[in-house]
Design brief:
By secondary structure, the chain is mainly α. It contains six helices and three strands, in the order ααββααβαα. It is globular.
């Protein structure tokens, strides 16, 4: 089972790398934020939503056995079999798909205050 899941992870990682996409860029739209009593917020995906993300990543040819192995490894029974997005992202990082927030490359997000723009001269 683990060998099959690992092989699937490798294939998904290769496809993400080919498309130059991070796991977060593809799978975030399939996740839903869930707040827990301790204040923790996790991005969770249902098994079906996760498999849709796998298809979007480019892995259209997923057998029932491969899907079952992936879900067996990733699904959390204590969370109604949801998959934690950050956990999947960490797994993809282990296969070379680095996580990058989509707006990380925007160096111009910083807006100067009035004091900085006019040198503080009023």
């Amino acid at each position: 089972m683990l060998d099959i899941a690992e092989h699937c992870f490798i294939r998904v990682a290769e496809m993400l790398l080919e498309k130059n996409k991070s796991a977060r860029a593809v799978f975030t739209k399939y996740s839903v934020p869930e707040q827990f009593p301790d204040g923790t917020i996790l991005e969770l995906m249902s098994p079906i939503a996760f498999l849709e993300g796998v298809k979007e990543a480019g892995m259209d040819e997923l057998s029932e056995m491969e899907a079952a192995c992936l879900l067996r490894v990733l699904a959390k029974p204590e969370l109604d079999n949801a998959i934690i997005l950050n956990e999947f992202i960490m797994i993809m990082e282990n296969f070379g798909v680095m996580d990058a927030y989509e707006d990380d490359d925007d160096d111009d997000d910083y807006i100067k205050s009035e004091d900085e723009t006019d040198g503080g001269n009023d």
